[in-house]
Amino acid sequence: MLAWWAVAISAVCAAGLMPLAMRSRSLGHDVPRGVQKLHQVSTSRLGGAFVFLACVATGAAGELFGHSLLSGTAPLLWCALPLVAAGLAEDLTGRVRPRYRVLAAVVSAMLASVYAQGTIPRLDLPWVDAWLGHAWVLLPLTWFMVAGACNAINIIDGAHGLAAGTGVIMLGGIALAAAGGGDAPTFTEAATIMGALTGFLVWNYPRGRIFLGDTGAYFIGFAYAELSMRLVARNPELSAWYVIVLGAYPIVETVFSMYRRGVLRRMPLMAPEGVHLHSLVYRRVALPIERRRGSANLSAANARVAPRLWLHGMLCFALAVAFHDSTPTLIACFVGYAVFYVHRYRALVRFAARPGRGWHRRHRSEAAGGHVLRRAAALALRARRDRESDAHL
């Protein structure tokens, strides 16, 4: 029997706990400084910690009322404690180096490989699967992929609702496949975390009253990686590339960011930067919309980012579900999405978006009023400055 009500329990717990973090005036607040910041006011970063606590509370309720499926989430939550502790330390102090957070994620992955069935069962690539029978290959590869998943969600956590909404979509894909395969334990764990994220989104989107922080981003990535491995292990008819295509958006974002930093910009791979896809959508799409409306509301511009990038997650979800049992097709879908991502990124960098609806009508009216020359000159000057600032890309 599938525990659909786990979503409701964890959602209520998370939504009820978030105001506690929001009322904290001195702990874990993110100030709007730095190249990655898209907000204007100091905001609590403790949302992820309370998402984790909501999952713990839901598991405890299952234990209390004798529901074995809910109480079965305990091993995964216990294994997540090292990365949750490191993320919480960063959210509270802002002084934990990225290498130590990644190390904590690796420690959690090590624990999960022993206590939570957290090892890669197969990749459906014969020349790779043959090596997975060797522990010296299997374990490091598993730990690397789990740490990579944590970092991937952390990278896209840059706009109101983006990381949490993407996490709901990805975990929804896991829950759907688990339900179809009768895998009740995996479904229950995915549903519990989805519910907690939904409760968080009540306060996070669209106004950004609380943030996930590193705790939440790392926990989502860890849970997704571990549940993905468990889902593939328990459902042999499901291609291993199903879960890879489900997470294609954050995966491609991470790989492309590493290429951009390490190859194009000659920067440390873990260095912060303000040119992720969501940053470009904010500057090149969302802010201009607000300016055309005569508004300087940066929070409203921020809220316009996530729905556009949730479409990326929904596209990957649709492709994964449509071709869930065909490894060659899923590999082609992953490559196709990567090409699409790079195309959209380059279009935003180069300001290649086409004029929107009403552009010609608006500019005819401006010409009638004698403003077109001044506007054209201003646009040309802005475009030249942007090209100069983006030349290093």
Describe the protein:
The chain has 19 helices and two strands. It is an all-alpha fold. The chain folds into two domains: 5-349, no CATH class; 359-389, no CATH class. Helix 8 (135-156) packs across helix 11 and helix 14 (277-292) packs across helix 16 (305-322). The N and C termini lie far apart (52 Å).
How many structural domains in the coordinates?
2
As residue ranges, the low-confidence spans are 34-39, 356-377, 389-393
Largest sheet descriptor: 2 strands, antiparallel
The helix/strand series, from N terminus to C terminus, equals HEEHHHHHHHHHHHHHHHHHH
- The CA-CA distance between the termini, in Å, is 52 Å
Q: How big a fraction of the residues is strand? A: under 5%
SS-based class = mainly alpha
How many helical stretches? 19
Radius of gyration in whole Å, from Cα?
A: 22 Å
Please report the total strand number as a whole number.
2
Shape, please?
globular
Helix content: over 70%
Q: Give the averaged pLDDT, no decimals.
A: 86
Question: Gist?
Answer:
The protein is mainly alpha-helical and 393 residues long.
List keywords for this structure.
single chain; mainly alpha; 71% helix; disordered C terminus
Write the layout of secondary structure elements.
Blueprint: H1 5-22, E1 29-30, E2 43-44, H2 47-64, H3 68-71, H4 74-79, H5 81-93, H6 98-115, H7 126-129, H8 135-156, H9 162-180, H10 184-204, H11 213-234, H12 241-246, H13 248-264, H14 277-292, H15 298-303, H16 305-322, H17 327-349, H18 359-368, H19 372-389
Antiparallel strand pairs: 1-2
Helix pairs in contact: 1-2, 1-10, 2-10, 2-11, 5-6, 5-11, 6-8, 8-11, 8-13, 9-10, 9-11, 9-16, 10-11, 13-17, 14-16
